[in-house]
């Protein structure tokens, strides 16, 4: 950790230039010749990236940032706060501490937390930042987390792990065994140290692949931020053998959309119908969950087709996703397309449809944007149709 960047005049310069073009600044002469210019530029770039993602860090004085990649890869404050709402207790150990955003929020829910980070420089940065952030109940270990668990030899209320993919695993199907630490291999060892474990994974992990590698899974949380899935959380409890619940959350500016269902529940019977008055498109967290029949059963709305994952109803309901009023349904054929959409402006979405959005736009000369939303999809009778809609939410 280079503390020279904490000099007041350098900190003021970093704050003043937050958001500025770093490539333009790099062409200027370094106004602080006793500190490497690249160090200062890196701080400016990383702080700029933190403005929206980490507002608490951004607005706190004398924060030191690691590389901009560490800032890009860390949890956002919103997803960290959501994670912290799932756990509580006396002690938690984070085996893959990183920049410490998750631990900042865990510290509000536990009497004490331990931050393990094998990178000594990053560990020192987080320790310094927690002092600025007034976190007083965290201890820091700059060592391999497996060694720390052995040496401390105590029981923890929770273990938290965010394993990272090994460099040699790129291009392969994403599996937890391809990550560091290798959680499936170490799981029995972890259970000697805690009965409750929360594992964060990248959103591209297939849920069934995660379940095939883990045991005692109680809940799988799918967290989206502004309709983009950011992370999966596998919540496991030693010897748990009951139902597995999928919990989806889409965190928006003014609310959080949630939808939960039991995995493999045989009581979900979807209904199918032709397009009615209103159309619903599930949010990204639900789309990742695969709980499409459960959505139809729970909300008592109809599916258009087994594989279309669009829903319809006569009466408008409050739905976790986008809602539309259907103004017209047309068949996907030359005559109807020429009459209704040729050379028009519209937002185009495809669901269970053989052509891409790009091809459709090109073929029918549809300009992007405007207030019209067109869903190219397949109905329950396997007919290709286009739903011309107006967005409600």
Automatic annotation (TrEMBL):
Keywords of this entry: Methyltransferase, Transferase
Gene Ontology terms for molecular function: methyltransferase activity
Keyword Methyltransferase annotated: yes
Annotated Pfam families: PG_1098_Fer, Thump_like
PG-1098 ferredoxin-like domain sequence ranges: 278-320
Domain THUMP-like: 321-391
SUPFAM superfamilies named among the record's database cross-references: S-adenosyl-L-methionine-dependent methyltransferases (SSF53335)
Gene Ontology biological process: methylation
InterPro entries, per database record: PG_1098_Fer, SAM-dependent_MTases_sf, Thump-like
Keyword Electron transport included in the entry's annotation: no
Name used for this protein in its record: SAM-dependent methyltransferase
Species of the source: Flavobacterium reichenbachii
